[in-house]
Amino acid sequence: MSFLQKATNAINANLHEAAFKVEEFAEAHLGYEDEEEREAAINAKKHRYQSFAPVRLDTEVKWYIDGKDYFWAVSEAIESAKYHIYIEDWWLSPELYLRRPPSKYPEYRLDTLLKRKAAEGVKVYIVVYEEVPEALSLNSKHSEQALQGHNIVVQRHPDHSLGGTFFWAKICVVDTRIAFIGGLDLCFGRWDTHDHQLADYHPSSTSNEIWPGQDYNNARYKDFAEVENWNLELADKRSIARMPWHDISVGILGQPVLDIAKHFCERWNFIKKEKSEDRPEVTFLEPPLGGFTQSYAREADSSRRVKHQHNLGTHKGTSRVQVLRSSAQWSHDIVTEHSIQNAYIESIRSAQHFIYIENQFFITSTTSASNYEIKNQIGAALVDRIIRAKENREKFRVIVVMPLAPAFAGDIASKEASVCRLVMYWQYASISRGQHSIFEKLRAADIEPSEYISFYSLRSYDRINRSTISDALTEAAGLNLDTKSVLGAAGQGASATLIRADDTEPDFVRGTSGSRHGEIEGRVRIPSEREADRLQERFDAAAPRGGVARDSIASDVMLGGGDVRNETYVGEGERGSHGERMSRDPANPDERANYISEELYIHTKVMIVDDRIVICGSANLNDRSQCGDHDSEIAVIVEDATTIPSKMNGEYVRLQCCPFMLAQYFLSTKPSHFAATLRRQLFKEHLGLIPPTSIEAETDANRPPPYPYSLHKDPHADRIVEDPLSNEFMNHWTGTAKRNTEAFRNVFRAVPDDGVSTWEEYKAFYPYDVPVGHVGNKNLSVNEIREVLSTIRGHLVQFPTEFLNKVDLKGDAVLDINDLIMELYT
Fold first, then answer.
1. Do strands 613-617 and 595-599 pair parallel, antiparallel, or not at all (unpaired)?
2. Enclosing domain of residue 176
3. CATH of the domain at 298
4. Does 445 reside within a domain?
5. Terminal Cα distance for the chain, rounded
6. Are 182 and 117 members of one domain?
7. Based on the number of CB atoms within 10 Å of its own CB, is 392 exposed (0-12), middle (13-18) or buried (19 or more)?
8. What span, in angstroms and rounded, lies between the C-alpha atoms of 788 and 586?
9. Which of 122, 124, 553, 576 could bond to 152 as cystine, CB 3.0-4.6 Å?
């Protein structure tokens, strides 16, 4: 960075700080005796977006893309704890490994790490969602029982019947010094790299395993089950792809940590008062910014409450940050707050050039009609902003990236997938179908939607490193391949359910006949611990040695990651334990059965506006998360005073005001380092313009703040993603999505797909005698499969806005779903 740029950033930061400190001083003038009284005065005024928290200055914020970097950073922060740790999650898996591979980092299993810190005297407070058993299989009771103990206290909330609300907030606060929030729970199925590999079958050594037990999961086949038996491999790694997971979270240093800790303590105290009064080990927690005296002083004497000191340190960042939330009486005992939705709407309205949204759901309304089921107005804000761009002849674009299909178990066409089809109905009603969809609202205003807004998804492919030769060697040694899948559960019960890929044809939804479940279940005997040790030795002895193929080829879609056309399938000169020579055939017919594909599940909850504003947190884009009176959520809106050279529509964005004017206006026009680098890194990942990820490497990318980002720089890639409005970028983006979509269609017959409009077309599109997720085009040779797959770069594909557009998805769904289930997922 040049001296001039450094000086400019310093001036910007000082102007930024001065402008907001004047406002803060006006709201809370001098004369207050303590911090609590001062904060109460500020909170008596309306904060921006009607949030409980004010705008905070001098904050350091660091983004984390995907679970590998985030979980490593969290493990480092927890390890640094000296006084207390606050954790709130929708689901928490005590047996989650925060660093991989597990064989190398056993001490970083979450329960092991937390108990070690508790033994050192650190107080650990955990809140987990108490699930609706009929709808979810999280077994929060197991989480509580596995962790509750010396210096670790767990509360579950809420107590409710079917149809109750969720809390999705994901929070980790360490010593009220550093905080993490975002989309990632500390639970199974979330750890992933930018490569998003699908295969984790290691015939040569189980020590290379990345996702042990139920951490290897594919919710499209079957949800988690009996999670207390966490080390059971419910999905057969020899035939079923895992569902890869894409997500974003942030780490924070500075005053917003106090607001996040306050939110946690308020919630903790509310749960204590509501359901834990008879638990003496559950003490009240005094929030760091007041509010305890007024709410709970009469409830708790000094022996039943704890006040933790906070130490924000001396480090100062360059961002202004505001904590937002969706909360209500049921979750927080407060008047309903929906500041997250308010921030989304206002940020969309103020957008000047470009909006990028990644979200797990897209269910929103373009109408304020009281009789319309969906209430949140984010869709209406998008329509209004696009219409304004058309009227003003502005070049303006919205890009939305969302899952190809909701992650519910069962074939989309099966009777068991009613909830999946219902969510799909409301998403299509929001995007492209019906008078209240975004597309139809724009067409009514004489606007072609594709000129301003477009939708995309992500998909991966991989190859399982399994051959009939390896299987034959294992079986020749007298070993059962199914038994290998349950060795990790040795001594834990008599038998387990193992899920395998299926090629049978069960029941379809109403009006058709014949469907595909996608999996079959079988019971497998669990060996004793002594027997498991002996079996493992025999498996290792029978495993192929030397020159073996790679256990995953997912990195072939990334920059410099390899070429699927050159991948070895069976190692040349490879010998088994009995001396048999294994042949090498680059087009071995066995290979066809081991190519797999799955949607890359997008769990992100982020919006980036003009490369200057980022909203990131736990809130989905639906009524459940946005309206405030449903699910409990938390997020931050980040505006970084450190600017970065950036183009929009071919021109560098320049200062649009006199430097003597308020910094607030300056910040509203200049791209920020935080937002621009996050958006560019996401684009490069989706387009395959970054190198493959090392599983276990420690880098700046996976350290807590204030360690900086670790950005891969490539002049060609950086130029492509710099300007999201340029023709070069849009041609590369749309071209990659189209090419990838066509390749997946050609090889795998992957659904959802725009070429499928009816159930009959759905049945004809994918052959029934091929397991779901495997090669569906029987006319391709193995070499032809490799050739087609070699055209795939990154994971970006088109979102199928026309999929099943001649099917009444809602009608098919509501036959099997009651009103309470409908409320859970919209």
1. unpaired
2. 67-190+256-311
3. 3.30.870.10
4. no
5. 47
6. yes
7. exposed
8. 15
9. 124
**Alpha carbons 553 and 412: distance in angstroms, whole number:** 28
**C-alpha closest to that of 209 among 459, 465, 531:** 465
Q: Are 122 and 174 in contact (CB under 8 A)?
A: no
The structure tokens listed for 201 are: 């079958």
Q: What does the pLDDT read at residue 533?
A: 63
Final residue in a domain of this structure, among 289, 311, 333: 311
In this prediction, residue 481 carries a pLDDT of 54
Residues pairing with 674 in the sheet? none
Which pLDDT does position 516 carry in this prediction? Answer: 46
Given this model, what pLDDT does residue 753 score?
98
- Kindly report the backbone phi and psi dihedral angles of residue 382, in degrees, each rounded to the nearest multiple of 5, phi listed first: -65, -45
Residue 706 has what DSSP assignment?
Answer: T
How many domains would you assign to the chain?
3
Whether 319 maps to a domain, the answer reads: no
5 and 138 housed in the same domain? no
Tokens of 399: 């890009």
Q: What number of other Cβ atoms are within 10 A of residue 468's Cβ?
A: 12
What is the torsion angle, in degrees rounded to the nearest 10, for the CA atoms of residue 476, residue 482, residue 483 and residue 489? 160
Backbone dihedral region for residue 337 (phi beyond 0: left; psi -120 to 50: alpha; all else: beta): beta
- Selection from 94, 98, 102, 109 nearest residue 227 by Cα: 94
**The pLDDT value given to residue 419:** 87
State how far the alpha carbon of 76 is from the alpha carbons of 186, 616, 679, 776, in Å: 14, 22, 26, 44
Residue 336 φ then ψ, to 5°: -50, 130
Residues 6+ apart with CB under 8 A from 671: 610, 611, 612, 643, 644, 646, 648, 653
Domain end, chosen from 311, 330, 356, is at 311
3-state secondary structure of 258: helix
Instruction: Point out the residues of the chain with pLDDT beneath 70.
Output: 1-45, 132-138, 159-167, 290-305, 468-548, 570-589, 654-669, 812-825
Is 116 a member of any domain? Answer: yes
**Cα–Cα distance for residue pair 298/139, rounded to 1 Å:** 34
Structure-token match 């299509």, residue found? 428
- 278 and 165, same domain (yes or no): yes
**Residue 739 is encoded by which pair of tokens?**
């090419």
Q: What is the pLDDT of residue 584?
A: 45
Tell me which residue of 268, 258, 100, 90 sits closest to 178, measured CA to CA. Answer: 258
**pLDDT attached to residue 662:** 43
Same domain? For 171 and 294 the reply is yes
User: Do strands 123-129 and 152-157 pair parallel, antiparallel, or not at all (unpaired)?
Assistant: parallel
Number of Cβ within a 10 Å radius of residue 820: 14
What are the residues facing 601 on neighbouring strands? 245
My answer on whether 143 and 39 are in the same domain is no
Taking the C-alpha atoms of residue 464 and residue 199, their distance in angstroms, rounded to an integer, is 5
Looking at the structure, tell me whether residues 82 and 161 fall in a common domain.
Answer: yes
25 and 81 part of one domain: no
Tell me the three state secondary structure of residue 542. Answer: helix
Q: φ and ψ at 555, to 5 degrees? A: -70, -10
Instruction: Tell which phi-psi region holds residue 393, choosing left (phi > 0), alpha (psi between -120 and 50) or beta.
Output: left
Look at residues 254, 260, 259, 258 and name the one whose alpha carbon lies nearest to residue 313: 254
Give ∠ CA 80-82-87 in degrees, rounded to 5.
75
Please give the backbone phi and psi of residue 108, each rounded to the nearest 5 degrees, phi first. -105, 20
pLDDT for the residue 507? 54
Rounded CA-CA distance 90/84 in Å is 20
How much of the chain is in helix, strand and coil states, percent to nearest 5? 35, 20, 45
Do β-strands 123-129 and 613-617 pair in parallel, antiparallel, or remain unpaired? unpaired
My answer on whether 147 and 211 are in the same domain is no
4 assigned to some structural domain: yes
pLDDT in tens, 590-639: 799 999 999 999 999 999 999 999 999 999 999 999 998 888 899 999 99
Nearest CA among 746, 768, 201 for reference residue 463 = 201
Contact between 541 and 477 under an 8 Å Cβ cutoff? The reply is yes
